[in-house]
Amino acid sequence: MNERLKSMGDWLRRFMPVSTLLCLGAVAFIIFSGDNTVFRSIDYDRQIDSLEQCLAAERDTMLYYQGLNERLASDPELMEQVVREQYGMKRASEDVYLFE
């Protein structure tokens, strides 16, 4: 068994210089360990994409409600329609019936 390990070590020294082994070890360390591994980077990229999609959806909602607020501030008829529908308000001469 010891002879086999010695022959394997001789083969490695002959065909793979020490500098190559050190470089391979450094690359393996970068890929598989530490805080900035390739796997963590891929996971972080997926999380960033997911959060950007959520942010885009929230931005669309915000823009919709900003537009609605601007229309309500500038259009009295729309304001009256919303107040009547949402809050059941009425004029003095009207009767309101709510159906559920």
What can you see in these coordinates?
By secondary structure, the protein is an all-alpha fold. Helices cover 78% and strands 0% of the residues. The protein has 4 helices and no strands. It has helices at 2-15, 18-32, 38-74, 76-87. The model has no long low-confidence stretch (mean pLDDT 85).
Which strand-content bin applies to the residues? under 5%
Beginning-to-end CA distance, first to last residue: 87 Å
Shape: rod-shaped
Percent of residues in helices comes to over 70%
Query: How many distinct domains?
Result: 2
Largest sheet: none
Total of DSSP H or I helical runs spanning 4+ residues: 4
In terms of structural class, how would the helical and strand content be classed? mainly alpha
SSE arrangement:
Layout: H1 2-15, H2 18-32, H3 38-74, H4 76-87
Task: Supply database-style keywords.
100 residues; mainly alpha; 2 domains; 4 helices; rod-shaped
Briefly summarize what is shown.
This protein has 100 residues and is mainly α.
